[in-house]
Design a protein that fits this description.
- The complex is a heterodimer of chains A (409) and B (1073).
- Chain A has three domains: 2-133, 2-Layer Sandwich (Beta-Lactamase); 169-261 and 373-407, Immunoglobulin-like; 265-371, Mu homology domain, subdomain B (Immunoglobulin-like, Sandwich), CATH 2.60.40.
- Helices cover 16% and strands 43% of the residues of chain A.
- Chain A has helices at residues 29-39, 76-94, 99-104, 106-116, 127-133, 138-142, 230-236; strands at residues 2-8, 14-19, 48-50, 55-61, 64-70, 117-118, 121-122, 169-182, 188-202, 208-213, 219-224, 238-241, 246-255, 265-273, 279-288, 297-304, 309-316, 320-324, 329-335, 344-351, 364-371, 380-386, 393-407.
- The longest helix of chain A has 19 residues, at 76-94.
- Chain A is globular, with a radius of gyration of 24 Å.
- The two termini of chain A are 47 Å apart.
- With 1073 residues, chain B is an alpha+beta fold.
- In chain B, strands 10, 11, 12, 13, 14 and 15 form a six-stranded antiparallel sheet that branches. In chain B, strands 1-2-3-7-5 form a five-stranded antiparallel sheet, covered by helices on one side.
- In chain B, strand 8 and strand 9 form a beta hairpin.
- Classes of the chains: A alpha+beta (409), B alpha+beta (1073).
- The interface between A and B is large, with 88 and 87 residues.
Chain lengths: 409, 1073
């Protein structure tokens, strides 16, 4: 199936190659570079590129292209899903998945890749099994990635901090994401909630866990970790499983669409360009809406400004802001929202002289976090352990985050 | 050795160096070239030294650096000899890295690679399964053609390995060997066939992968395993699931009839629409025959459904395509939700899934309509995702949702991504043509866009408007006027050309404007784009024909300009038009028709999706579908067969057997109890009840009618049989007797021999004979008597390893049984074990018979086997197996015997004595003993007749590797106490309360495994005890009922592997109703 793998950084260097069958010359990547040039942006590079003798399937994560070389028909998702699994594994091993880290740990990376595929067919892809076969480097493990705004799939690391160390424990973190598009006037065009339950289990023996919900009906569509017994869910709506060790994603869910989604924030905006003058006005205010009395934290506002904007001079009432005149990206790190004193960002934009005003106002992307609240209303009823005699620590936390939250202006 | 390879290296290095030097002399100074090279050499030299070192740490460092070189794509092949020496290193870390190196470079250094082979061959025999597996992996990854036979051998061996992990690796190795040497195909198919039968979920995915790669057309190999694969599917690892599902999709399309005829959904609606009613009727008539879905077809659809919940996008997609391609139309709907879920994943996953949804949504709008909003575009989506979403939105548009969609489109048109905005305009155009209600709205909207600031948007709008107007001309004079004005500002050639064309077509509707436009264009003609020039010429020609008064001069001016244009197309066109429209003496009859030619009614263009290029004939979810070209190795999805092929090919033998076996076993009535009890099945059929057993029955049970039993024995057809079986059973006797006295046993033996001969001579004599034997066999008889009476205690004390009677045997319901059966029983009693099975409650365990050799493949010779659950008479570590041979041909089959044996290590087998001949329709049962070494490995051997040899296998269910043990509750608890921790496996069972009555549990457990009941003081705890046949390790099974409908199943044993296998087998049995 998968012949070879090339890792390519953003400047177009192949910094790692691995072959599972006979060696494929790295010149095959030239086709990829061509496509990359055509696409102008990394995001737009097509995931599947045919070449005369091979097919190149790639994923782009952490500013690295993972390019798999295929020779025969194969379900493309098979390869793509696998490549993502590779990235996840690296991240699990090294905390971050970046070019320098991979280069520093090239031997471990190589061994892991060797175990993950045999003759191009996946062999061991579960990270707990891999870790038994190949020890992760220890020093790096302590350097925990603190970069905010991590990709959605990779936030396991929020878990262990609140679990007692050195004790048999099992914890779960239920996280809701709100995906929404809010239109100009503030009404919701689409909004949906999806979420995951990430678990961190440090138990000995063969514990058999069951997790039940107060309101399982909320869950409209679910996908499970392979350890979950599907039959039990079908019949009783109970998650029953023998957990693997460590961190894993137990469940991903989607909350049924009938339930109205409570939007916890609102954005007041006034962005205007004038045809005649080379100055535009910019003003946004963020405020809490339906938060069930919880504080909204970690608010970050980003917006891609139109090309005509040369610079912005803004003053925030709190937090810090940056504007990159090259990429035209405005970013405002707000922090917590204080309902008494709403944060706002005001100022002017200087526009290119003589150019006509942009037709479209920029879209505002919002990130935020609400602790101790699952906005969907999902509640875990209880977590029980069978099969072992001891009493473990059990904990469950809730959190709500913004997923793809966009406000059109 | 080490110095040797060192020298070799230096030599080769030096050689290369001189070569290089020679080449270099002419251009660069030789010393410079040399220096450069030698520094490189030196670097590797130091690695070599490190590899030579005695310290593991130095070696490890060196290996790490070498692997680093490989990863960067640098050539490290030079170090091969130095590295390969470390292949036998004790340090596992080094070893791993050496393996990595070997696999990379062996192909380039074939000769040297051979040095490492013996290490792998040794490792293949390692007791550690991980080492065996990795040795096989590396060995098969070394692409050196010389070792093909070694690889073949290793694969064959590994495919029978005890460890499923090793077998999985064997399946992977099959593909590797196949790509190395396709000649091996036939042999590899044999291995695949064997591995397909494997019940381990670990193996299933890999072997199906091998199947797909090596012999995807051998669909016949799948038949027998189809149901098993369907049932295992949920537990297979996710990557295997994908492969299996794709394979089963193809399988289903060849083996089942179409389920689409009955509930033809939307797809056929269109077709039917055009068909006349009569045709329709005919069609329905044809379809009158009610369609019922093959249960196997249903099984596949049902068993894949849970996988829609998989976290693995590839699995979900695989199930989705399976539903799309093989399930009834009415059931396809359930996949949409899961596919929409995948849209929340990474961009690459989204891309593929959206493509597939796009194809589906063309054919079946309804499926995705409820999820319309999920396809709304976000400004952060990459362009390719945006375009695909747009495509889907267009496909989903209908009268009901179009207004919402148009509002959404308005936002998109304003997008900063102009390419996307242009695509949106195209989309609006398509919506306008598809849904007539909104055509005007769309047109108006597009006209508004004409005043957009962005040129690309305007140009795109013009093009789309042109197409729309063409479809419904008339009444749109206003728009045309508006567009004519645009000509002053718009510069995009396509748009200008479109406007000119429109004006030309509609010149009669805008009589005032058209000549003016031509005037302007004439002025700017020379500076226009070629595309525009052509349209100017066209416009001029059209106006000349309709309004020559105003435009004659203008047109001639333009034609003159065109005559000297640089572009030959334009000169050409000019000449053509001039000839056609300007009347002169030369122009023929054609010019009369010029107006008709230029102003003909032109058919409206169809606005089609750029995406809809027949992608749908590719199987969804494949690479070919994504690329819309046939990828190498793409396997076509065949059309449904008109008539389903024989569904019985998927039947697994057990069912078939019941039918076939019945008529053949004429000598015996089908009495499961009897089957079960008869220990030495040689006595079955006509050859049974040798005088030995008779005499026993006679003497031991007084109530026995002697005449009857001798009658039975008189059926005996050939004396050979008698003596054969006799001696065989005698072995058992001997064994029993051994403990009493050896000489006694021997004398018994000899006496029986005499007897058997006399037996054949006359029946009447046999009675007296048996009388006389009483004397010689006194001891044994005593024992039998004890056995018959509930006095088993001493027996079990004496012969604990041989037989394991349950503590409280119940007297057998003798009178109810047929005399011959009694005779059998008596025969058994000699070895004192018949009581073993008489567990506390009279639970009959139906005998599960398995096919050993099907009559089709055995050329008329059919063989079945089952496990009689008796201690084996051939050896106390053996499991006894009874084989029934049937002759289904019309001629004698002669000399049936066992030929070559292929047994895994340690396994032993006691074969039955050759059978001289088997009459047509005849049947004979023989007994064998196999020492399975407490594993579920398959025993393969050849069953031979005079003319043929057939390969057959016996694989024991784990429950048959046990013998019941009598034990008190106290002892049980004590033993259990010693077998905790690692030796304990447990699981929770959920089942309806009626399944937890003591008798049901007992029956179920005993059905699965040959265990003895331990009397229990508590109602809610059931205990069973047994020991493994080979090692005699205890196997303790506890079923503890909990409140509600759950129960805990615990197994304690030293043999944890068997324990967990047994647990796995017991669990489903106990939990099902």
């Amino acid at each position: 199936m998968i012949h070879s793998l090339f890792l390519i950084n953003s400047s177009g260097d192949i910094f790692l190659e691995k072959h599972w069958k006979s060696v494929v010359s790295r010149s095959v990547c030239d086709y990829f570079f061509e496509a990359q040039e055509r696409a102008t942006e990394a995001e737009n590079v097509p995931p599947v590129i045919p070449t005369p003798h091979h097919y190149l399937l790639s994923v782009y994560r952490h500013k690295i292209f993972f390019v798999a070389v295929i020779q025969t028909e194969v379900p493309p998702l098979f390869v793509i899903e696998f490549l993502h699994r590779v990235v996840d594994t690296f991240q699990d091993y090294f905390g971050v998945c970046s070019e320098p880290v991979i280069k520093d740990n090239v031997v471990v990376v190589y061994e892991v890749l060797e175990e993950m595929l045999d003759n191009g067919f996946p062999l061991a892809t579960e990270s707990n099994i891999l870790k038994e076969l190949i020890k992760p480097p220890t020093i790096l493990r302590t350097v925990v990635n603190t970069i905010t705004g991590m990709e959605k799939g990779e936030t396991h690391r929020e878990l262990p901090s609140w679990l007692p160390t050195g004790q048999l424990s099992s914890g779960a973190l239920a996280k809701d994401w709100i995906d929404a598009i809010i239109d100009k006037s503030g009404s919701t065009i689409t909004a949906e909630i999806q979420g995951v339950i990430d678990a961190c289990v440090k138990l000995t023996g063969m514990p058999d866990l069951t997790l039940s919900f107060m309101n399982p009906r909320l869950l409209d569509d679910v996908s499970f970790h392979p350890c979950v017994r599907f039959k039990r869910w079908e019949s009783e709506r109970i998650l029953s499983f023998i957990p693997p060790d460590g961190n894993f994603r137990l469940l991903s869910y989607h909350v049924s669409a009938q339930n109205l989604v409570a939007i916890p924030v609102y954005v007041k905006h006034n962005i205007s360009f004038r045809d005649s003058s080379s100055l535009g006005r910019f003003e946004i205010t963020v405020g809490p809406k339906q938060t069930m009395g919880k504080t909204i934290e970690g608010v970050i506002v980003t917006s891609q400004m139109p090309k005509g904007v040369l610079n912005m001079s803004l003053t925030p009432s709190q937090g810090t802001h940056t504007f990159d005149p090259v990429t035209k990206m405005l970013s405002w790190d707000v922090g917590k929202i204080n309902p008494q004193k709403l944060p706002s960002l005001k100022g002017t934009m200087s526009l290119q002289a003589g150019a006509s005003k942009p037709d479209e106002n920029p879209t505002i992307n919002l990130q935020f976090k609400i602790q101790q609240l699952a906005i969907s209303g999902l509640k875990v009823n209880r977590l029980d352990m069978y099969g072992e005699k001891y009493k473990p620590f059990k904990g469950i936390k809730y959190m709500t985050k913004a997923g793809k939250f966009q406000v059109r202006t | 050795m080490s110095s040797n390879s060192f020298a070799y290296n230096e030599q080769s290095g030096g050689g290369e160096a001189t070569e290089l030097g020679q080449e270099a002399t002419s251009t660069i100074s030789p010393s410079g070239a040399f220096g450069l090279f030698s520094s490189d050499l030196k670097k590797n030299e130091d690695l070599k030294q490190m590899l030579e070192s005695t310290k593991d740490s130095a070696k490890l460092d060196a290996m790490k650096r070498i692997v680093g070189m490989i990863a960067k794509g640098k050539n490290a092949s030079e170090l091969f000899p130095a590295v390969v020496k470390n292949v036998a290193s004790k340090n596992i870390e080094i070893k791993k890295l050496v393996y990595v190196y070997l696999v990379r470079y062996a192909e380039e250094q074939q000769d040297l690679a051979l040095l490492s082979i013996s290490t792998f061959q040794r490792a293949l025999k390692d007791p550690n399964q991980l080492i065996r597996a990795s040795a096989l992996r590396v060995l098969s990854s070394i692409r050196v053609p010389i070792i093909v036979p070694i690889m073949m051998l290793a694969i064959k061996e590994a495919s029978a390995d005890l460890s499923p992990y090793v077998r999985k690796n064997a399946a992977h190795a099959i593909q590797k060997l196949y790509s190395l040497d396709p000649e091996q195909k036939e042999m590899l198919i044999e291995v695949i066939e064997k591995l397909l039968k494997d019940k381990s979920t670990l193996v299933a995915g890999s072997v199906v992968m091998a199947f797909e790669e090596v012999c995807p057309d051998r669909i016949d190999l799948i038949h027998k395993n189809y149901r098993k694969l369907c049932n295992l599917l949920v537990d297979v690892e996710e990557w295997g699931q994908v492969v299996i599902i794709h394979m089963l999709t193809r399988y289903a399309r060849t083996q089942f009839v179409s389920p689409w005829k009955e509930d033809d959904g939307l797809e056929d609606n269109e077709k039917n629409f055009y068909e006349s009613d009569d045709e329709q009727k005919e069609k329905t008539d044809q379809r009158k025959k009610p369609y019922t879905m093959d249960p196997d077809h249903r099984l596949l659809i049902r068993n894949t459904k849970p996988l829609l919940q998989s976290r693995n996008a590839a699995v979900v997609m695989a199930v989705a395509q399976l539903y799309w391609h093989i399930s009834p139309k009415s059931e396809v709907g359930i996949i949409s939700k899961s596919l929409v879920r995948l849209l929340r994943s990474n961009r690459e996953v989204q891309y593929i899934v959206l493509q597939n949804i796009a194809t589906m949504s063309i054919q079946r709008k309804g499926m995705f309509e409820p999820y319309l909003k999920s396809f709304y575009v976000r400004s952060t989506d990459p362009t390719m995702i945006k375009t695909l979403k747009l495509e889907i939105l267009t496909n989903l548009a209908n009268e009901a949702n179009i207004s919402t969609l148009l509002r959404e489109f308005q936002t998109y048109v304003k997008s900063q991504d102009k390419q996307f905005a242009a695509a949106t305009i195209q989309t609006i155009g398509r919506c306008a043509t598809n849904i007539s209600e909104v055509t005007d709205t769309c047109l108006n909207g597009l006209v508004c866009l004409l005043s957009n600031r962005d040129e690309i948007v305007v140009a795109e709008s013009v093009v789309v408007i042109k197409k729309l107007l063409q479809m419904q001309p008339a009444q749109h004079g206003e728009i045309i006027k508006h567009m004519a004005k645009l000509l002053d500002s718009i510069t995009v050639p396509v748009a200008r050309a479109s406007i000119l064309w429109l004006i030309g077509e509609n010149c009669e509707r805008v009589p005032k404007i058209a000549p003016d436009v031509l005037r302007k264009m004439a002025k700017s003609f020379t500076s226009e784009d070629d595309l525009v020039k052509l349209q100017i010429l066209n416009l001029g020609a059209k106006l000349y024909l309709t309004n020559s008064r105003q435009t004659k001069l203008l047109t001639q001016y333009i034609l003159n300009l065109g005559k000297y244009d640089q572009n030959y197309d334009i000169r050409d066109r000019t000449r053509f038009i001039r000839q056609l429209i300007v009347p002169n003496e030369k122009s023929g009859a054609l010019s009369k028709y010029a107006k008709k030619i230029f102003l003909a009614q032109k058919p409206a263009p169809l606005l089609e999706s750029p995406f809809k290029v027949d992608r749908d004939h590719f199987q969804l979810g494949t690479l070919s579908h994504t690329l819309n070209t046939k990828a190498t190795g793409y396997l076509e999805l065949s059309n449904w067969p008109e008539v389903a092929p024989d569904p019985s090919v998927r039947n697994v033998e057990v069912i078939e057997l019941a039918k076939e076996w019945t008529p053949a076993g004429k000598a015996k009535k089908e009495n499961p109890a009897k089957k079960f009890y008869s220990e030495s099945e040689e006595e079955e059929d006509s050859s049974d009840s040798s005088s030995d057993s008779e005499s026993e029955s006679g003497s031991a049970s007084g109530e026995q009618d002697e005449g009857d039993s001798s009658d039975d024995s008189s059926e005996e057809s050939s004396s050979e049989h008698g003596s054969d079986s006799e001696s065989a059973s005698e072995v058992g006797d001997k064994r029993t007797a051994k403990r009493n006295s050896k000489s006694k046993g021997k004398s018994a033996d000899s006496s029986s021999e005499e007897e058997s001969s006399s037996d054949s001579e006359s029946e009447s004599e046999s009675e007296s004979e048996s009388e006389s034997r009483k004397v010689t066999k006194e001891k044994e008889k005593k024992k039998t008597k004890q056995d018959r009476n509930p006095l088993t205690k001493d027996v079990s004390l004496l012969d604990l390893d041989d037989f394991n009677p349950v503590s409280t045997p119940v007297a057998l319901p003798t009178p109810a049984l047929s005399p011959s059966l009694i005779a059998d029983l008596e025969g058994l009693n000699l070895s004192t074990s018949s009581s073993v099975i008489s567990v506390n409650t009279p639970v009959f365990v139906p005998v599960k018979t398995h096919v050993l050799l099907h009559r089709m493949s055995g050329r008329g010779l059919a063989a079945h086997y089952f496990f009689p659950r008796q201690p084996c008479i051939f050896g106390d570590k053996m499991v006894s197996v009874q084989i029934t041979l049937n002759n289904t041909t019309d001629r004698k089959i002669e000399n049936i015997h066992i030929g070559g044996k292929k047994l895994p290590m340690g396994m032993q087998m006691h074969v039955f004595n050759p059978i001289e001949s088997l009459e047509p329709e005849g049947s004979i049962t023989v007994s064998m003993g196999i020492d399975f070494c407490d594993s579920t490995q398959t025993a393969s051997f050849q069953l031979c007749t005079k003319d043929d040899c057939f390969n057959v296998n016996i694989q024991p269910p784990v429950g048959e590797l046990l013998l019941p043990v009598a034990m008190s509750e106290k002892d049980f608890k004590k033993e259990q106490g010693m077998l905790t921790g690692m030796n304990e496996t447990s699981t929770v069972i959920i089942a309806a309360p009626q399944n937890f009555t003591p008798s049901v549990i007992l029956q179920k457990v005993v059905n699965v495994a040959n265990v003895g009941v331990v009397p229990s003081g508590q109602d809610n705890i059931h205990r069973f005890a047994a020991k493994t046949v080979h090692s005699g390790s205890l196997m303790l099974v506890t079923v503890e009922l909990k409140e509600g409908s759950t129960a805990q199943l615990i197994i304690n044993t030293e043999r944890t592997v068997i324990g967990s296998v047994l647990l796995r087998e017991l669990k489903p049995v106990l939990s099902q109703g």
